[in-house]
Model the fold of this input.
Amino acid sequence: MAHRIQYKLLAPLFEYPQAGFPESVREIKEYLDGRYADAATELGRFSDLLPVADLEAMQELFTRSFDVQAATTLDVGYVLFGDDYKRGILLANLNREHRTANIDTGTELGDYIPNLLRLMAAIEDEEVLHDLAYAILGPALLEMIGEFSTERIEKRNKKYEKHYKTLIETPAVATDAVTLYQFALKSLYAVLKQDFALIESMPLQRSNDFLGSVTRENQIEETAAAQSTA
Done:
C-alpha cells in the first residue's frame, strides 16, 4: 500500500467542527466516491444529517458524541483499555512512532483518532501499520460504533440522569442527526476494511513489535487466570 492519503484526508472528519467543516466533508466524500463505495455511502448519510448552516449545532453534535455525556471517545486506547496501564504502554509506543514520522499531535494524545490517521498515512513500517489497523483502530471502531445503538444510548442516558440528575440539551436538529457521527465512524471502518480485508477476529501474535509488550501482558494475565481456575 504505497499511498495512504485517504487516512490523512479522513482525519479532519473527527476534529471539532469549525467554519468550512461542511466543505471538508464534501471533499472527503468526493474522494471516496469511485474508490470506496461502502465508505462513500456511509459518509453520505453523515452529510445528509449534518446541519451545514448551523456551526453551533454541528459543534454541539460533536461534543455530545465525544466530549460531554458522550456516546464514546475519540481516544482509541481508552476505548480498548480504559484506565488500565496497557493504555500507557500503547501511548508510549504511539508517541515513539509519531516522533519518528514527525507528526505533531498538538494538545491531544497519540491515540486520538485524527492523530492516529495521520500516523497511518505517514508511517513507513508496514508491520506496525498492520498492527494499528488490525489490533488497534479496527477493534476500537467496532466498539465505538456499537455505542451509538439505541439500547446503549438509553442505558447511558438513564445513568446520567441517575448520577447527574440531568442530560445535556439536545441540539435543535432532526432526531436522527443526534447520532450522525456513527456514520462517520462507519465510513472510516469501511475504508479500513477495504484496505486491510479486516475481519472481526484480530489476533495479536507478534513477539517484539509495536504491540508486543501489550500482547505479552495479555498472555501473562490469561495464563494466570487459567492457573487460578485449574
